[in-house]
Design a protein that fits this description.
With 147 residues, this protein is of the alpha/beta class. The chain has a single domain, classed as Response regulator (Rossmann fold, 3-Layer(aba) Sandwich). It is built from 5 helices and 5 strands. It is globular. The N terminus is likely disordered.
């Protein structure tokens, strides 16, 4: 298991049951992670802005695609644009390729289908995100040293 740059994961889903299941499962499987949650994209983005002022950005944001106030695609675009060190994974109830492509264009690492891939797949995605963010952080440090 790769160490996460931060031990915080932000989960945004407008379905309270899905959100609770994801948060509880991550906490149970990875007790060292701090899991915070939001009910929509706007709340998640606002939380991220506040966390950035204290230097405690999450390592991963899990976003449902279809949410009120601000959908996952818009939230992903804003988050990855302003906070490139934060990895985003999308969640969808369908395997709609249009929404998957939109999330990836916005900067998401990928999109998981709720119910199909399940929590085990989500945990694997967390590990992949951790590995990617660790690699990116190391590359940025090396670039900064060279400049």
């Amino acid at each position: 298991m790769f160490p996460l740059p931060s031990q915080t994961i932000l989960c945004a889903d407008d379905d309270p049951d899905d959100r609770e299941l994801i948060c509880e499962t991550i906490t149970r499987l990875h007790p060292t992670y701090r899991v915070v949650h939001a009910k929509d994209g706007w709340e998640a983005f606002t939380w991220l802005q506040q966390a950035s002022t204290t230097g405690s950005l999450p390592c991963l944001v899990i976003l449902d695609i279809n949410m009120p106030k601000m959908d996952g695609v818009t939230a992903t675009r804003l988050m990855t644009g302003q906070y490139p060190d934060v990895a985003v994974v999308g969640l969808s109830v369908t395997e709609d390729q249009y929404h998957k492509a939109a999330m990836e264009r916005a900067g998401a690492l990928g999109v998981l289908t709720k119910g199909k891939q399940g929590v085990d797949e989500l945990c694997r995605e967390i590990e992949k995100a951790a590995a990617m963010m660790s690699f990116i952080s190391q590359a940025r440090k090396k670039t900064a040293l060279l400049n």
